[in-house]
Amino acid sequence: MPTSDEALSRNDNPLSPVAVRPPIPAWLLAVLLALMTLALYWPALRCDFINFDDQGYVTKNVQVQNGLTWESVQWAFRSGELSNWHPVTWLSHMLDCQIYVLKPWGHHLTNILLHAVNTALVFVLLHSLTRTRWRSLLVAALFGWHPVHVESVVWVSERKDVLSGCFGLLTLMAYARYAQNRSAAAGSSRFHLPSSIFYLLSLCLFALGLMSKPMLVTWPFVLLLLDYWPLRRFPDFSIQRCGRLLVEKIPFFALAALLSLVAFLVQRHGGAVVAVECLPLDARAGNALISYYRYLGMTFWPSQLAYFYPHPSYWPAAKVLLAAGLLLGISAILFRQRHRQPFLLMGWLWFVGTLVPVIGLVQVGEQALADRYMYLPSLGILIAVIWGAHDSIIRRGRFPVLTASVAAAAGLSLCLALTRQQISYWQDSETLNRHALAVTENNHLAHVNLGMALRDKGQIDEAIREFQAAIRLKPYNAAFHVNLGATLAKKGLTDVAISQYQQAIHLEPDNVDAHNHLGTALTKIGLTDEAMREFQEALRLKPDNAASHVNLGGTLARKGQTDAAIAQYQAALRLESDNAEAHYNLGIAYYLKEQFAAAIVQYEAALNLKPTNPEIHYNLGSALALNGQLDQALQHFQAALRLKPDYAEAHYNLARALAAKGQADAAIDQYQQAIRLKPGYAEARNNLGTALARKGKFDEAIQQLQEAVRLQPDFLQAQNNLRLVIDMKNTPPVH
């Protein structure tokens, strides 16, 4: 017999000119679904990186920016960066950097393509499992176009959601093929471990999914749910049959346990796991129960979505009890309906079970819940709702098919409109954080991130107000005081900044960033010894902190201890071979020791890491010039000026290099450019004077040399040149 979907898509009147309407091929529906999803998210290509995690994942992660190299691949599997272990996700970001460098649209495009593929995979999976076309299509469309998934798609750092989702769906497809083949070949006299290629393929895909994001740890339970419905490998929760299917899943459970343990240890070592002392178990349990209710709410009424929802610590007991009653009530009702409507129980358990790793019983991070956690769990709710609606409304004839179709179209249209609106909030860091503050209360993280966005735009006063707002909400957060201090320092309020760093250290004595910032501030006001003690304390707390070694090296260099400074820079490079600041400062140290060849090597290493830094080009040019490599020096001085046209020192040194190559007119022009930008540049006036004198322009030369002496009365070279040029002017030419 045809399914109800097939019956709805054909004309059953035998007298009709066309008795059967050919159905649209499933593959074409999948392609159209993917293309529509791609079109929906296309505006996200105009979104920028944001200042929450994107720096650690891409924009300030040198390992990722290096692309796919043998060293970076090794790092991906060893790294616990950002308190996560997901090597496959790191590799995908590296590939993006290799292709798109740091162009945001390219990184967004990869996320969007993965989500479009996932949307098509949802349809293909459900269609292959249930042989229903329109229900599968509707679930897939709701999945692809639901606004709660915008965070997973448009946030570059959430590549792990769409990537693990892709591998997770492919795992289910491979497993379904294995189970269907096994059912077709039923008749084996005894149970044995499967050797099907699809079983092994599903296991491999599952491993890749776990290495993209460990949230797939619940996937073995999802496989069991598929066994229940729609595969119907056991008609009810039979202990004997369940036992066999559980044994079949042992490799999946073992893999999940192993990789989950690795992920948990990495998160705990990175400080992402919140201690029980900070958030008691009863508070976590209460928030978990409320979160299920809130996740249901955002599925059916996706308004006021934000990238961060502050944790309230404790919810009112009445709300917690109500949420618990709601969960138990729904579970009991659906369990009683399991024979007549097994898809309801399957979808509900999918939703409840797949949220367990992120529901907050093991608290990772400060959030109460997150939109991104609903990426795969939402599928369970969508399956239950669509299949339940079809069974209760269409199959039982309670509403006409046309009415149900109009309702479905209205729901999809609403999702499309809300998703487009939600995408617009991810335009940049400022827009995102202002929206979060508008739809949430007491959002300390949004205040901090908005402050950083404003600080980067040069809006220092506004940034200070945002950091102060965050501190009012979380006065004991040392990192917030450090951020406020760094912003005050940008405004030149060094003394006030120092007080903020000291407050941070008072709250968290082992805060390495606070010690480093305090040392930098003390250096600015000339307290070099005190600054050195702060850097040494930072190294005592964290000996493998490369930044502390660089800072200590800078302080030693200021005290004239160049060899000791070199040792600190070298220590930093042993820890981080790609530390551009360490290479640059080491180059300066070698330059001061007149070891120009060694300085060139370090400047070039720094330039490879920061190719658009004009200061590195300038210093490399200076070292090359003193090493006799004038042509290369000219190239780097010119590069520095392309990047920073008002760089007076670069004009001056370019002029010296041109003069050394005999290009007097070009040198004079560059000296004049330097003086125009920096009128008090005595050295440039001295050299311009001598260059003009060689051209016979004695009056102009004398004027420049006199100004050089006026600006710098103890400038002996300018004094000698002035006397020499005056003598040359007063000496009659010899005929």
Compile the SSE list and pairings:
Blueprint lengths: L3 H5 L17 H16 L12 H6 L2 H4 L4 H9 L8 H14 L3 H27 L3 H12 L4 H5 L4 H26 L12 H14 L8 H10 L10 H10 L1 H20 L11 H20 L16 H20 L5 H13 L23 H18 L5 H24 L4 H11 L4 H13 L3 H14 L4 H13 L3 H14 L4 H13 L3 H14 L4 H13 L3 H14 L4 H13 L3 H14 L4 H13 L3 H14 L4 H13 L3 H14 L4 H13 L3 H14 L4 H15 L5
Which descriptors would you attach to this protein?
mainly alpha; single chain; disordered N terminus; 37 helices; about 725 residues; elongated
Q: What fraction of residues sit in β-strands? A: under 5%
Low-confidence stretches: 1-19, 189-193
Shape estimate? elongated
What is the mean predicted local confidence, pLDDT? Answer: 91
Rounded to an integer in angstroms, the radius of gyration calculated over CA atoms is 33 Å
The major pleated sheet works out as: none
Total DSSP E strands: 0
Fraction of residues in helix = over 70%
Number of helical regions: 37
- The SS-based structural class is mainly alpha
Terminal CA distance = 120 Å
Describe the structure.
The longest helix is centred in the first third of the chain and has 27 residues, at 104-130. This protein has 37 helices and no strands. The chain has a domain at 4-184 and 191-424. The model is unreliable at 1-19 and 189-193 (pLDDT under 50). By secondary structure, it is mostly helical. The relative contact order is 0.05.
Briefly summarize what is shown.
This protein is mainly α and 735 residues long. It contains 37 helices and no strands.
